[in-house]
């Protein structure tokens, strides 16, 4: 979280932030990114994503959804739950209809979406900005 305190002089503040709450640690070496969720019993090794050749911070892949319904996922880093990315939104709104592109957060809420049909779904995570996307592939 973000903390602000006064310095004792008018107009001066000290601001501090918990880096983990805002994003992934800057010294974290990302060797792999995967998607874990209701589709695979939350296994942290999940569905592996591939780093983009032109943008190594962009990880993309495909999820195979067996049956339609609400799917919940998170992105796991280095095949473990120590560092993961979920939804930045704190609202309990209904799962959005695809396609979605949204801001993620380190250790955020589960990302939920409505899979309207079985089949392949594109997923991506940008590990520097923590933005993610999900869309159905035709």
| SSE succession | EEHEEEEEEEEEE
> Could you list the spans in which at least 5 consecutive residues all have pLDDT below 50?
1-6, 13-21
Mean pLDDT: 85
Q: How far is the N terminus from the C terminus?
A: 40 Å
Oligomer: single chain
Q: Which secondary-structure class do the elements indicate?
A: mainly beta
Helix content: under 10%
* Structural shape: globular
Tally of individual helices: 1
Output the radius of gyration.
17 Å
For the biggest sheet, the summary is: 10 strands, antiparallel
Indicate the proportion of strand residues. over 45%
Task: Characterise the protein shown here.
With 138 residues, this protein is mainly beta. 3% of the residues lie in helices and 51% in strands. The protein is built from 1 helix and 12 strands. It has one helix spanning 19-22, and strands at residues 2-6, 13-17, 33-37, 47-48, 50-51, 58-65, 69-77, 80-87, 100-106, 111-115, 119-126, 131-136. Strands 3, 4, 5, 6, 7, 8, 9, 10, 11 and 12 form a 10-stranded antiparallel beta sheet that branches. Strand 1 (2-6) and strand 2 form a beta hairpin. The chain is globular, with a radius of gyration of 17 Å. The chain starts with a strand and ends with a strand. Mean pLDDT is 85; it is low at 1-6 and 13-21.
């Amino acid at each position: 979280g973000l903390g602000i305190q006064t310095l004792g002089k008018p107009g001066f503040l000290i601001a501090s932030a918990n880096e983990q709450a805002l994003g992934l640690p800057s010294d974290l070496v990302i060797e792999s990114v995967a998607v874990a969720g209701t589709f695979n019993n939350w296994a942290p090794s999940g569905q592996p994503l591939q780093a983009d050749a032109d943008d190594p911070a962009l990880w993309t892949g495909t999820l195979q959804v067996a049956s339609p319904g609400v799917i919940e996922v998170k992105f796991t880093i280095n095949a473990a739950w120590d560092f993961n990315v979920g939804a930045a939104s704190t609202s309990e709104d209904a799962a959005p209809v695809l396609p979605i592109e949204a801001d993620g957060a380190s250790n955020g809420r589960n990302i939920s979406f409505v899979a309207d049909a079985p089949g392949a779904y594109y997923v991506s995570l940008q590990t520097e900005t923590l933005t993610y996307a999900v869309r159905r592939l035709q």
